[in-house]
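A brief tutorial aside. Many learners find it easier to grasp structure tokens once they have seen a single protein encoded end to end. The record that follows does exactly this for Acyl-CoA thioester hydrolase. Read the sequence first, then the structure, and try to relate runs of similar tokens to stretches of the chain.
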Amino acid sequence: MPDTPPKDQPTIRTIAMPADTNPAGDIFGGWLMSQMDLAAGSVAALTARGRSATIAVEGMKFHRPVKVGDEVSLFAEVQHVGRTSMRIHVEAWRRQRESDLTEKVTEAIFTFVALDENGAARPVWSAGV
């Protein structure tokens, strides 16, 4: 049974480039994790209506490699909002440039804390979450 990505629009879509590879030609896991953090951070900023910072990443699982030229789509969704923190589930999906086939390559839960202008934790101000 083929993988089916989320039906929503991706939070971020990017192309894996040669500068992001390890000696075997696969994309570095750290590059992929940074893209996931960007997607989660975008959702966190919108949810908190302001600045936020990553404080934890849980359950990072690499299912399949990403290759140079793959289109990488990142889907981020709020799972839980606490008083000052947000848990955001992120999935990364790859599509070869010349194919319609998509595969989930990794996923994780990113925890963010809403920050005030001094960098201290503040309550999350959210509309509709």
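Self-check: The first helix runs from residue 29 to 48. If you spotted this yourself, you are ready for the next section.
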